[in-house]
Design brief:
Length: 215
């Protein structure tokens, strides 16, 4: 199965407020671009403690969610942009429920693997000038997700994102997000422990999950 890439986008870190920088404002890339182990082309991450690295090499956010956000915050100008939420890859038709941990996709000549949902932070609300968006993401599961790069290559806007193998159906990006950060209470520690032991879980996220379990 495949989905056409609406846009490939990169960003550069700039002053963002609160004395911090951010590269959340992504811009459309023209022509072919390198898909590297840690980034798409020259894409930057300002906060390397919480963002970036091989398990956050590419961020995917479905354009499908923009209609949801228009109902919540109105026809915000940023929702006209495919990279409104700081993503590198934009598509329609592929959502968090159908992207599984370990799913592998061919993107141009690169091979990438879905590995973790995106945890929302204050920078989304700051970018849009709207409070309450993080809570809406936590409640709705419209989080987007990250890929690690298995084989480097090149890609461009308009390419197909072709799923070439399936991962673990137990752990969709939505299921992972709900287990880790969803608003269900009390949190299911048994599910967290199961996820923490998964061989495909990024090591940094595994460590955070084990800490939450008291290990």
């Amino acid at each position: 199965m495949s989905w056409q890439v609406t846009a490939l986008m990169t960003g550069q870190k700039v002053d963002f407020g609160r004395g911090e920088q951010s590269a959340i404002a992504k811009q459309l890339v023209a022509g072919k671009i390198d898909v590297g182990r840690e980034a798409l082309g020259d894409d930057q991450q300002a906060d390397r403690v919480h963002h970036g690295g091989p398990d956050m090499a590419l961020h995917h956010y479905p354009v499908d969610h923009h209609s949801f956000w228009r109902e919540i915050i109105g026809d915000h100008a940023l929702l006209q942009e495919p990279g409104a939420f700081g993503s590198n890859i934009a598509t329609t038709g592929l959502l968090e429920d159908d992207a599984w941990l370990g799913d592998r996709f061919r993107l141009g000549t690169a091979l990438i693997e879905a590995c973790q949902p995106r945890q929302p932070c204050w920078k989304i609300e700051h970018r849009f000038g709207q409070k309450g968006m993080v809570a809406k993401i936590l409640g709705s599961g419209r989080c987007g997700w990250f890929y690690r790069v298995i084989e480097e290559g090149e890609a461009e806007t308009g390419d197909l994102l072709e799923r070439v193998s399936r991962g673990d159906p137990v752990w969709s990006m939505r299921a992972m997000f709900d287990a880790l950060w969803g608003t269900s209470t009390p949190q299911d520690k048994g599910m967290l422990a199961q996820l923490a032991s998964h061989e495909l879980l990024p090591e940094k996220l595994r460590a955070k999950t084990l800490t939450r379990l008291g290990n």
